[in-house]
Amino acid sequence: SKMFGMIGQSAQEASEQVQGLLQLARSSQSDQDRESAPLEQIVAGALQACGEDGFAPEQLTLRGGELLVFGHTANLRSLLQNLMSNAYRHRAADRPARLLIDAQAKQNRLHIRVEDDGDGIPAADRERLLQPKQQGHGPKRGTLGLGLAICTRVVEAHDGQLRIEDPQEYAGASFVFDLPLPPDVANPAST
User: Fold this and answer.
1) CA separation (Å) from 29 to 22, 26, 39, 170?
2) Which residues on adjacent β-strands are paired with residue 176?
3) Per-residue pLDDT tens over the stretch 6-38
4) For residues 119 and 100, what is the distance between their CA atoms, to the nearest angstrom?
5) Could you tell me the CA-to-CA distances from 30 to 68, 72, 181 in Å, in that order?
6) DSSP string, 30-55
């Protein structure tokens, strides 16, 4: 029965890897099915998709959630779900888990910072971790090394760039990226 357990675990890992690779392929497609949606709706979907292995709503601070983003909402939800899952997995043992999502409209783009209060990411690892099949070190690492690569592809498919920066408000990791605003949104902040 131990052997069946190992076979079942291997099959589960293979299935997760295939799903991750499919998600990576879909995220880089240029998709014409873009729509306007409030950021808070995408965040709520990502939070729900994380389920019990994620932040409770009271651990999340969202600023600018009423702002609209223009994109493929399933991919954007996947982007935020990956960032939330990473933040939750790398939460610090000595302080409460917290997540900040801060969005500001500037120059026809929605600039978003997702910052956590977890272990952080050393500056030397930041570029590497955004590439496929790359993982951090230690016991909290993910299983496939595709999550941040998927995030990078989703942002690039929306003509943006994903960066890992020094945190501004919390002590952990800070992911910064930009997404398009809806074309019909008059944005007085962009002048």
Assistant:
1) 11, 5, 21, 34
2) 113, 163
3) 555 545 544 554 455 455 455 545 556 789 999
4) 15
5) 20, 10, 17
6) --S--EEEEHHHHHHHHHHHHTTSS-
